[in-house]
Amino acid sequence: MRDIWIMKLRNIQRNEEDATEINLDTEIEYEVMSEGVRRIAYLEADESGMGGCISELLIMPNNTVTLIRSGTFGTSLVVSPGKEIFCDYQTPFGNVSFTVRGRYVRNHLTDEGGALEMCYAVYMNSGMMTENLILLRIEKKKI
Predict the structure, then answer these.
(1) Is the dihedral of CA 94, 105, 18, 9 positive or negative?
(2) Which phi and psi (to 5°) does residue 115 adopt?
(3) Which partner for 28 in 7, 18, 102, 123 could form a disulfide, CB atoms 3.0-4.6 Å apart?
(4) Secondary structure letter of residue 80 according to DSSP
(5) pLDDT at 88
């Protein structure tokens, strides 16, 4: 029998004009892979605008986080503190390239769950589009 995990995610996006907040509580797959890499996978909610997509977070021991999203809005986004990384975002109108500047990643995940906090900025054409703060908490579902 596998453990059932719940993730509570809070995503705050800010730009020059305003801020939006998305909250998601969902069942996830959570596992520790080889070499201490932690994997979180979940189905995106319809309310997020990405319903039907599968998102996978890979959290490396060096605090680099990779988001891989498959489906209509395929994405490969990497957040690494203090680094700039070029990423792609798939839209119905074509691919969009942008730069992700990792501000910080605070990884407090254990085999029993825990929390992950990361902050990064997204730049396109040398201008900042958004700054993103992701807060997530993982816990085993009580049955």
Answers:
(1) positive
(2) -135, 155
(3) 7
(4) -
(5) 83
pLDDT tens for 26-50 read 999 999 998 999 999 998 766 555 6
User: Any idea of the CA torsion for 37, 104, 44, 6, to the nearest 10 degrees?
Assistant: 60
Residues sharing a CB contact under 8 Å with residue 128, sequence separation 6 or more, in sequence order: 15, 16, 121, 122
CB-CB contact of 23 with 9 (8 Å): yes
DSSP conformational letter for 83:
-
The residues spanned by each domain of the chain are 5-140
Give the C-alpha separation, 105 to 66, whole Å: 11
CA distance 125 to 103: 19
CB of 73 within 8 A of CB of 53? yes
Q: 5-140 sits in which CATH class?
A: mainly beta
- Structure-block tokens of residue 34: 């080889």
Question: Which neighbouring-strand residues pair with 122?
Answer: 100, 130
Of the candidates 119, 121, 132, 73, which has an alpha carbon nearest to the alpha carbon of residue 99? 121
* Chain length of the chain: 143
Backbone angles phi, psi at 35, to 5 degrees: 60, 25
Average pLDDT for 120-128: 87
